[in-house]
Amino acid sequence: MSAQLERLTLFTYPVMVALLSWMIFAEKITKRIWISLLCTYLGVVFLYSYETSSVANSSITLGTTLVALAALSFAFYVIFSKAYIVRLGSLIFTSIAMLSSTLFVLIHFSFIHNLKDLTVSTTVWIFAALLGIVSTLIPSFLVSEAISRIGGTKTSIAGSIGPVFTVMLAVLILGEDFGWPHLLGMTLVVIGVLVLDSGKVDGLKSKV
Q1: Of the ranges 8-17, 36-45, 64-73, 166-175, which is most confident?
Q2: Which domain holds residue 166?
Q3: This model's pTM is above 0.90
Q4: Which of 3, 27, 117, 187 has CA 20 to 30 A from 109's CA?
Q5: Residue 184 Cα distances to 48, 52, 156, 160, angstroms
């Protein structure tokens, strides 16, 4: 699957959070949420249909399914982590989360690989370090700090630019195609998430 489809699929997690909150905690699901749900998944389905029709590759379906499951797991993480972030603070909570993730990565590696598989080129280690530190560790702390300073809603709205950056980098660095189907899919997903987040902002204002 393309990096663009991957990012748009993963970016649907805020809608999953709203739906899971409704299912688990009986929070009210509004018309705005249904509109957001329609826009985001319509954008993903549209881009998915375009890619599967233009490229005869069955792995696109598997890739999209795996990314959707990743988004679902992160939605559960967001829902159940809030209480612990409030109790422990964003810095300690993120540190625990990162160390726990590292532990499970090591356990997974020990089951499916041998130590000799770590014998790779220096270039691979450099990219691995960049992915682990620059693309994972630092953003995790930045997001947690942003949530503690401006709240989850504004942080989520600011993160709406994420798919746009991904599309730009995918085209410039990976040489992926970008046409009106990609633009339409990206626009629908971003609008859907913004509709959901603007509803949260309105709800906060009404309470104040």
Answers
A1: 64-73
A2: 3-207
A3: no
A4: 3
A5: 12, 16, 21, 15
